[in-house]
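Subject: sequence -> structure tokens, single chain

Hey, anyone have a minute? Need the predicted structure for the following. Not urgent.
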Amino acid sequence: MKASYVKPLLVAALIVIVDQLIKTWVRTNMYQGQEIHFLGDRGMLLYTLNNGMAFGWELGGEAGKLALTLFRIVAVLGIGYALLYLIRHKYHRGLAMNVALIFAGALGNIIDSTFYGVLFQNRPLFQGMVVDMFYFPIIQGHLPGWLPAWAGPGEEFKFFRPIFNLADAAISVGVIMILIYQNRYFKKEEVEASSPHSEIVEE
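Reply:
Had a minute. Here:
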């Protein structure tokens, strides 16, 4: 196996390690809800715990949490198998790298969901909460009064509102890059039609 095809595995391992180091630092040096601003009011660390999916989305209740965690485990096993398949069969290196990002992100959040509840949060196995911290409300303001009533004129508006972690970012980048370059990654090889003049007959 060429070294260039091993890089996706190394990148995935690095992302998982850095993701866990960041989460551990936040969990041991910040209290929940604390903010550490590094780009003024446009970029900060905001220690948040969430029960659910990427960017703070949730699937309610303990049963929903258990189902989500088990789904994540099955999904990461499938993604891991797909990544090894892509590497072994020498698919486009960009595709392998982006699948590695998705795999690393999914694995990083599974570690939280599966083990953090037992280790740090006094929760059962598979009921851990995911640590989020990156918050970039780049655009803030209030919706103009001329908007129709259903749009909520005068209400506070923020972009980008979700709070996320490195694992979430890795998943998002991997998915977006696959969508952008799908024609390149999944390009079908053209099969040239054979002609009597191009055939070689062995005697």
